[in-house]
Structure formats: C-alpha cells, structure tokens
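[job 4471] stage=fold_predict status=RUNNING
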Amino acid sequence: MTEHARSAHPFYAYCQTALQEIEEQGRYRRFTSLSRRSTEYPVYDQGNIKQPEKPVTVWSSNDYLGMGVEPEVMNAAIAAIQEYGAGSGGTRNIAGTHPLHVALEAELADLHGKEAGLLFVSGYVSNHASLQTILNSMSGEWITFSDQQNHASMIAGIKGAKKSQCIIFKHNDLIDLEEKLASAPTTAPKLIAFESVYSMDGDIADIGAICALARKYNALTYLDEVHAVGLYGNQGGGISERDQVADQVDIIEGTLAKGFGVHGGYVTAKKEIIEYLRLAASGFIFTTALPPSIVAPALASIRLVRQQQWRREKLFERVHSFQKKLKAAGIPFIETESHIVPVMIGDAERCKEISKRLLEEYSLYATPINYPTVPKGTERLRLTPNPFHTDAMMDEMVHALKALL
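[job 4471] inference complete, writing structure tokens
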C-alpha cells in the first residue's frame, strides 16, 4: 500500500479535524523543551541540549522536594547502573525481580503502616491496574463511589472494569457521599475511591470522615496519596499519616515520581490484597519491571525523606512565603493548606498567552492548566514553590504576574 493510499483512511481526516478544533478551543498543548541543571534546581536550560537558549526558572515541577537532584539519590542511580546495568531485563515474573524491588516494596509498606506493597511502572498504571483488577473480582457487581475530581488514571481503572457500577459523588462532599452510599443495595460490594491532595485546586480530603462512612456502609477504601507522599506526616507518609488515619484506609496508592523525585507507582495494603493484585493485575504482570537504576535511587530517596523532617518544614516555609508575596501584590490565587498554589486566570487563551509571555519575556516557566484538566472558566497557572525557590525568584515571579495579569 502506498503512502497516499494509507493517508486516505478516514482516521487521518478525523485527526486533522479534531486537532483543528482543539487549536480553536485554545486547548492545543505544546511541549517546552527544558533540561534541568542538577546543581542549580529549579533552574533549567531551554532549547537544544547542546545549544541551550537561556536559563529558565521553573515553577511547575512535581519534584516537590527536589529529591531528583539530591546527590545521594543521584549517586544511588549511578552505582546501580554500574553494578546491575541500565535495564531490569524482564517482567517481575521473568528474571525482572531484583532484591532492590523487594526492599523498596517493604519500605513503602512500612511507610504507610501496611503489611505489603507492590511496585508498578508509574502512578497512572498503579491506579488503573489496581482499581480495574479489584472491580473485576468476585461474583457480584461492585458499586464504586468516585470523587468528582479524581485523577484520570482512577477514572480509567473504574470505567475499564466490566463488573462495576460507578457513582460519582460531589467533590469532598461527605453529605452527598453518604446519601449515595445509603441508597445503594446493602448486599453489593462497595468501594470508595478518592485522593488526599487534589492537584489542581490543592484542597484536601477528610480521610478520617470518609473512612468512618466506609465502615458504616461496609465499603472498601482506596486512597490516592500521589500528591502528598513525602510531603506530609512525620515521615512523609502523606495526609493519612499526618491525620493519623492510615490504619483506617484499606489501600493506599502513591508515586515515586513527585515527592520522592524518581519514577514509578505503587500500592500498599494487607498482604492478601497485594498478593491478589500481584497475581491478577495485568498492568503489573505483563510489563517490564522498573530497572534497578530507578529502584535504588527511589529507595535512597524514601529513606532520606523519612528521616529528614527539615525538608518538609522548608517546603512549607517557602510555600507560605510565596503566598504572602502574592497576597501583598493583589494577585488572585486559591489559598489552601497544601503546597499547591493555583493562580487563577479564568480564560484558556489568556492563560496560554500569559504562560507564553512569562517564558519569553521573564524566563519563568509556569504551566497553563486548561480544560479538560479543569472546568472551563477556571483556567489557571499551577505553581509549586519548592525548598530551592529563593526570595529573589519569588519576587521575580510576583513582579511578572503583576505586570501581566
């Protein structure tokens, strides 16, 4: 078949039309090529690696504590590559399980006070595979109660289950959740899926109250702590550790890619749940294992974060300092108790334009967040101050925002 004949397929025309519509709606996302300076975080170089254009201060990284550039973490990765090679060599069932995997899973289980843990190749996969596998289990139809603002990975896992009815409850609304739980058949297996810190608005769930409802209506609880692990609690166990309710949650899911600064996802729970997922979740079974060069630095990072409370203290000192500067300048933002600082714009095109001008005129990178990630009319710049943002960097961002808003 010729190239012309292949391009005649109707899917090509569909893609062209869809892309044009996305462009017209102001939702077309373009990558900005940035290379991090490991010794100068949060400063990056924009452009080609060999010929960088200019240094840029990044304000939208999810490496919240800067653990990805911590020398001890980087050295653990280097040592693992030198000793074990670049890859893992197979799935966990086919020569891909290393003693480091076993050690990391035990560390994660201990972090959350659970009996066992299971590693996945990403946080998206851990949510998708775990929820889909759980909700396809047993003989009856599960009823899943999903928070209105749950992450796309959770929604995909829930909707991908053939034996589950999904009921969406209003965001962080305990009254609505209980009404929906009370109206469900008492004999049906139930699961409540929710997050601790919601990454777009930065608000936080009342985990203890949700768990109390779960006990009242005999529901399993599945908590996504992706944007909280490493940052909250005495050892970085997340909001569930901070609020001393981790023992009330059945399944705690998290990531190694944000607060811990490396890569990968995981779930922790009672041993029988983890064993079931290990033996039944296709998203775990049929994919190559995380390489030792990722697992070793993740393990080093978690151990440092658990021991060093000063990292969390420094993060929130910086967050609160930045919020004060924004408030003094009259810049609109959502003030929450979390580490996420959304600066509200309210229009997709304007949001994209401000982000572009911040980069081009001020060498500041702030990701525009538009529909469908957030509802139309709530477009914003999602800023994440970290321990390495100096007062001078904050003043630069506040000055730029005041000029552009």
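[job 4471] summary: Residues 25-58+309-404 form a domain with the Aspartate Aminotransferase, domain 1 fold (CATH 3.90.1150.10).
[job 4471] exit 0
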